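Supplementary Methods, section 5.1.

A reviewer requested that the exact input to the structure prediction be made available. We therefore reproduce it here, unchanged from the version used in the analyses.
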Amino acid sequence: MPKPATPLDLLLLPSWLVPVEPAGVVLKDHGLGIRDGQIVFIGPRAEAERFVAAETRELPGCLLSPGLINAHGHAAMTLFRGLADDLPLMTWLEEHIWPAEGRWVDEDFVRDGTDLAIAEQIKGGITCFADMYFFPKIASERVHNSGIRAQIAVPLLDFPIPGARSTEEALHLGIELFGDLRHHPRITVALGPHAPYTVSDENLEKIRVIAEELDAPIHMHLHETAFEVEQSLATRGERPLARIARLGLLGPRLQAVHMTQVSDEDLALLVESNTSVVHCPESNLKLASGFCPVERLWQAGVNVAVGTDGAASNNDLDLLGETRTAALLAKAVAGSAAALDAHRALRMATLNGARALGLETLTGSLEVGKAADLVAFDLSGLAQQPIYDPVSQLIYASGRDCVKHVWVAGKQLLDERRLTRMDEQALHAAACAWGQRIAERTE
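The structure derived from this sequence is encoded token-by-token as follows.
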């Protein structure tokens, strides 16, 4: 058979290839070809051998999957990791985190904290993340430099925040950032109303109008705790999700983060509006916020993605670990060992995340024509043996230390567990310096 005229940039030959779409498929002895940042070939190894490739990588003992997608977080809060542990949500926020942010958060903090978060995520197999934090322009610059993919949500609250003296100023900066990055190949911009209890009806209506005009996603904490729902019923006479629906914000562009409280009426609203839910199990557990009914949502047809939340309440950005926790917790909450099996858990951490962020035609699965956003997990260790189902071993018997290689749009960001575009020693030094400064002022 004649060789193709156009060579591949890279041919990968793993032991197992898990495309995620179609669901539940594991391909043995297959190859994946990349050209110009896109997947252009998936097929049996014998067929792959007819291709000319600038580089061929054998990946024995490795599972090749779509890169993980962290659908919710606050990247720069890595610099507050462990600062205020073992506290309920509102005490944690009002007495510790918000005062610390008022004192410390500036452009330098966001630059260094976002770099630290990006590096941690790449080393954990994450190729795309959703960020919602102050100084979003700085965060977008760090994403651009690093090579990772991200959705940057512009935080919007009714009171002044670092980088914006008012909601109007934050909206103006958000519109400007959206325009600047409209054609960026790896960055999208969303509007980020913080939560129902921090954003008024008037401002939510402004956000809805702007989101519709820009066709921008909306990223929002919703139904994070029972107290949030009870407070809304007491003061407004309606549940927060019903209020958001009344104001016209529900729909495919809305990413509802947490949703630990879901009534029958809430479920109907989520299904009818095609709203995505972002599940953050470990943060919810640590803050005792409640349990998102993942299996119930999934069976009703709601798209459920997974996120780590910020490192200040988790305390890591380990999406593989988060996905394992999600799978185990879903079984306990549903009272069924069959709930959220390993293959669906991986789908939640990949394609469902892409769908929630509006990126499902670009990333989230291994399909010809999609971006080459990939992770190679090394399953050759003793702890993974024997291997009957590699996806089951990945979810239930592996940690993020098994992440060996990461590519985004065909560019390798992690090679043999080493960052290719970021200086790990410099990141470590910067984080330690911030920690020393913050600790000295809080003692």
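The chain has a mean pLDDT of 96. These observations are discussed further in the main text.
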